[in-house]
Design brief:
This protein is of the alpha+beta class. The chain is about 25% helix and about 35% strand. Strands 1, 2, 5, 9, 11 and 12 form a 6-stranded mixed sheet that branches. Strands 4-3-8-10 form a 4-stranded antiparallel sheet, with no helix packed on it. The chain has a two-stranded antiparallel ribbon with strand order 6-7. The longest helix has 15 residues, at about 1-15. It starts with a helix and ends with a helix.
């Protein structure tokens, strides 16, 4: 009986020309805010591989920002949030700024600062240092909530920070000139 009901529903939806993408687009266009969420953790390379891979620690008070651009590549919105004791951040962004619709695909989320005394070098794991665009589809769409869930961003210690290849090369050449 349940299978027949599902088949009947699918047939009615098909005949009405309603697809899931159209229904989602209709729902998303009526909402007034966009929610962004993610985590910030400390990853210490001086630990053993098992501890390094699994032993990340949340950082409280990290600043994460979102910058959204308009169609002419001008900043339309800038906002930031600090992480809680679990290393999680959650930002709520108005979808309409000065009467113009903010497009989620034009927003970039990145790490700004870490209050940790040693774990304060941003890494580019999951794009936290250079910034990451919002996913094409939100992770949660439920009633009045549209939530984009970003990956986990990481900070590391200064000891784990690698020098750019050009800086390392310059140091080697500088030492050769001291003969």
């Amino acid at each position: 009986m349940d299978r027949m009901g599902v088949l009947l529903f699918m047939a009615v939806a098909f005949l009405m020309g309603c697809t899931i993408n159209e229904a989602e687009a209709t729902l998303l266009s009526g909402l007034q805010v966009i929610n962004l969420g993610g985590k910030v953790m400390c990853q210490d390379c001086t630990k053993s591989y098992g501890e390094w891979a699994q032993g990340t620690q949340p950082i409280r008070g990290c600043k994460v920002s979102v910058t959204c651009m308009d169609d002419r590549s001008r900043i339309m919105y800038y906002g930031s949030d600090e992480t809680d004791e679990k290393g999680e951040f959650n930002m709520v962004v108005n979808k309409y700024i000065n009467g113009k619709e903010l497009k989620a695909k034009s927003c970039l989320v990145r790490l700004v600062s870490s209050p940790h005394p040693t774990c304060n070098i941003p890494t580019n794991f999951a794009g936290g240092h250079t910034g990451v665009e919002l996913p094409v589809r939100p992770a949660v769409v439920y009633r009045d909530l549209v939530q984009y869930q970003l990956g986990t961003f990481f900070y590391t210690t200064p000891r784990c920070d690698k020098l750019p290849a050009s800086a390392a090369s310059d140091e080697c050449h500088a030492n050769n000139n001291n003969y």
